[in-house]
Write a structure and sequence with these properties.
alpha/beta; 2 domains; Rossmann fold; six-stranded parallel sheet; 402 residues
């Protein structure tokens, strides 16, 4: 790893998104700081933001597309829709190198990959693409504006992805399944590293809260609320869970555009009183809700998107000693089965979810799974264990091994 005397500045690009918050960017900045690297995060400026300030182990450098010049801003937007390259963001990336001293560009997710690759070539620095998910497949699932659906379709995104993976010096993905997918598309496996969405060991320190199943299961879900998240299956399962455990409760923590549909579904099924919809909570408060739960859920529907990513929540549940119940999306099932952290149900199948909740509401089974998940986090699935992968990538690039 780089010595403290030779700190290299990594230019992370979170184009068209504010920072904070972005949990993955923050984790990568923490990992790089441990290896002797500094992180600059180029991000979108909001009205109340400073143009630059420190956010944890990163320095945020904020950019606005032609502020106060509506016609130029619209022209840049049209140019992006036509070419998938924003001249304004591309210039900001070059500026991140030339003015702020970034020695590599690390582009988060697919939409601005073309701008990032072109900027890196112009500035003469290596470029790293960080794919959080199968973006083309995700586009088919997300609720989007008609103009975006037309101009950045899954088919067009897939074409951009196939080009970008041949141009990048390195690629970062979140799970092995994502690496396998990109290799199948023609990416060089030696240029892909897996840096997961794990949590710091700090989350697993201390004695976990006891699992209190005397009142029945206390089930929790933390995260976005959208159709592909599978929460409709959970709500559909609640009558069966309540039949077995009349005092069972479900907490859904988060926001999203399908929240009204979930509430309506719960009302139709007569289970609304057993479900708490908290809305978005600060991370500390959300994690406190996880600490007192008896079961953490990741109920995603299976798709090419969910078969190539793993959410942060899985490792949060495990770190806090909570047993987990996940759907059979490939990476979720693989990790849970390998670690013994809980159980797997067939995605979209409410009766199977009910059976698995009942099984994990046994004191012995729940305690065994919760302890196994926490041990797995402490021994392997943690940020400190993942950090050397990211630092080694930049050690190689700093040594000229493009």
């Amino acid at each position: 790893m780089m010595s403290q005397e030779l700190r290299v500045r990594i230019g992370m690009v979170l184009a068209n998104h504010p920072f904070p918050p972005d949990i993955r960017v923050s984790k990568e900045a923490d990992a790089l700081a441990a290896g002797g690297y500094d992180t600059l995060v180029l991000c979108r400026a909001r009205a109340t933001d400073n143009l630059s300030d420190r956010v944890g182990n990163a320095i945020a450098v904020r950019h606005s597309v032609h502020p106060g010049r509506t016609l130029k801003r619209r022209a840049d937007s049209l140019r992006y829709l036509a070419t998938l390259d924003s001249p304004s963001w591309r210039r900001a990336m070059v500026d991140l190198v030339r003015r702020h001293g970034a020695e590599a560009l690390h582009i988060h997710d697919l939409p601005y990959a073309r701008s990032g690759i072109l900027a890196a070539r112009e500035a003469g620095v290596p470029v790293v693409l960080d794919f959080h998910e199968n973006y083309p497949a995700a586009l088919a699932l997300w609720k989007r504006r008609p103009i975006d659906s037309l101009m950045f379709s899954p088919k067009r995104a897939a074409k951009l992805e196939r080009w970008a993976i041949t141009q990048a010096d390195r690629i970062v993905v979140v799970v092995d399944e994502a690496k396998e997918r990109l290799v199948g598309l023609g990416a060089d496996p030696d240029r892909i590293v897996v840096f997961g969405n794990t949590e710091s060991l700090d989350m697993a320190r201390g004695i976990p809260a006891p699992l209190d199943l005397s009142r029945g299961p206390r089930i929790v879900y933390v995260g976005g609320i959208a159709a592909h998240r599978g929460l409709d299956t959970v709500v559909a399962a609640m009558p069966g869970i309540l039949h077995r455990f009349p005092n069972a409760r479900l907490a859904i923590i988060g926001e999203g555009h399908t929240l009204p549909e979930l509430k309506a579904q719960a009302h139709r099924l007569g289970v609304l009183d057993a479900i708490e919809f908290t809305g978005q909570l600060p991370k500390d408060e959300a994690m406190e809700r996880v600490r007192v739960a008896t079961l953490g859920l990741v109920p995603h529907h299976r798709s090419p998107h969910t078969d190539a990513t793993v959410p942060h929540k899985l490792f949060q549940y495990m770190a806090l000693g909570r047993p987990v119940l996940v759907s059979d999306c490939a990476p979720l099932a693989r990790i849970v089965r390998a670690t013994g952290a809980g159980d797997v149900f067939t995605a979209g199948e409410a009766p199977d979810l009910v059976r698995k909740v009942i099984a994990l509401s046994d004191n012995e089974a729940a305690s065994r799974a919760g302890a196994a998940g926490r041990v797995a986090v402490i021994s392997r699935w943690n940020l400190e264990a993942e950090a050397p992968v990211l630092c080694s990538l930049y050690d190689e690039l700093a040594a000229g091994k493009h």
